[in-house]
Amino acid sequence: MVAEVAPENRIRILVATDNHVGYRHEDKVRGNDALTTFEEILQIAVRKEVDLVLLGGDLFHDNDPPRAVQFAVANLLKRYCFGSKPIQIKTLATGEESDRKPFNYMDPNINISLPVFSIHGNHDDPVGKGNLAALDLLEVADTINYFGKQKSFDEFSISPILLQKGCTRIALYGLGNIKDDRLYRTFEARKVKFNTEVEGGESTFNLFVLHQNRVRHGAKNYLPENVIPTFMDLAIWGHEHESYTEAILGGQDQSTYIYQPGSSIITSLCAAETKPKHVGLLSVMRRPNEEGPVFDLEPIPLMTVRPLVIGELDLAQFEKDEGENVLDMKDTTRVEKLLTSEVKKLIAENTQKVTEEAMNLGTEVHLVKTMPLIRLKVKYNNYTPLNIPRFGQKFVDQVANPRDILSFTRVKKDSKSTKKMQIDDDEDDDPETAESERAKKEVIDLFVESMKKNIGWEGNETSENDRRAIRPAIMSEAVREYVDKQSKDSINNTVEYCRDQYAKYRRTVKRNENDDENFAPRTSNTISSDDEPPAPKAPRGRGRGGGIRARASRKRGRSFSFSPEAPPAKPKFESGYIGWSIGSLRPVQVRLAWLSNTHCLCITYPIPHP
Question: Range(s) for CATH 3.60.21.10 in the chain?
């Protein structure tokens, strides 16, 4: 089918997702695995003479990759993407960024021979001041073309990048990773807009690349396939690591093909990762005598992926055997010999498989395939598990993960088998979800009351509109970014943002409210952020106040000191604030004991479930 179309009317795209460059970068054996495979992907792109490379998110494994990792990726992109080969595709539209600079291959000062387009994933998403990602650094260095970033929290607008080669035209839509429940609710509220006002109409091939949960992990913690617009011809789904070689029909009314290439590196030792890894060569073409374009997808196996072999062993069966096979679980030496024997079998299985593969392909075995990832899942009952890292020392030169070869799972006697919970479409039918919602509502109410005091409004009961105004989902995301991605300013920036938004909301309510009795006037001693006086410089050293803080901390539990934006005129106690315990990620009530005009003791109390 592909051979019937002239090359000048065919757009060839190499598709890859979830490269996770930098994964275990400090590991002496596995540290360069992801980078090696990423280089192989670029080599395939050059060898196949594709028009562009399309990455579906998670190019980096870390939100803030180490400097050496960023340097290595930029160096590879410069080596394989810069050159004098002319670009065959024309760019008719650059997407939603009307004020963005041209794509790197459109810059007359740079010679690009292989354009690379990428969205962000959940690992390398933009955070912090300026909402920047590691991909922004690569884009400003003219090594990739970063698209699919959204500016708004509440509604999303997705405009296509319009590419053309000969008579074939592609509208490339991109959506970088967004927290799944937020994106679910945004689609539910019909606040996701796909701009379809492009030239060409039905003669344009609509391609959508996204990076979200495809497998359902909760009532709304995934993205259903049926939210994909029916006009999409093909959706490339990133984030899911299981590799599929073919595109299948899905979406609304089975109108869209969905292709899940999977990750290019193994990041978890599970069964889904045992499938051979590959990238996809997507060819989009339009025959002159036909109305719409068609596509062809060719899977290309990756040869530098470290193999994973998984085995299972149930120690209980040896307790039930008779004769020589019976095994006393207290005899740790015999049990360890048994486990060693099973691991050696898995290593031998990999050696045989790799050898046969090399003979069939007529190629040399890559070094990474000689040291596989091994995982032996051991079920036990009366056995005390041995020290796994010490056990793995005997396989240091044979496997790539000696410290976590074994995985122990205790099986209780006469335990009832637990069935997988079926999640109903109605979120309220799930008792755990309902309890979580009640707890979240109480935490939100406490935070609302804190915001009211902060801006000087008291006396009225918290309404549902109040809860919406502070946007609790954004606060939760800020805590996650602080903990998972070391974004130091995420909580402070988000609190200030919510405070300002809530103040605007309350001012709007007051202007529109006829009955002023429901609102308390702004207190005269409250200082706004606009007329806040500069805080005096805190004295250095511990001093008497430091001693008080230290003793109070020992008596009352966790506490810390901070300087507020608007301290009171004299020392006093205040309650009703809400905060987070970073260690446990749980909401806490906060009581402030003012020690001076600028410093206070912050005492936290856990918030009980309703």
Answer: 2-301
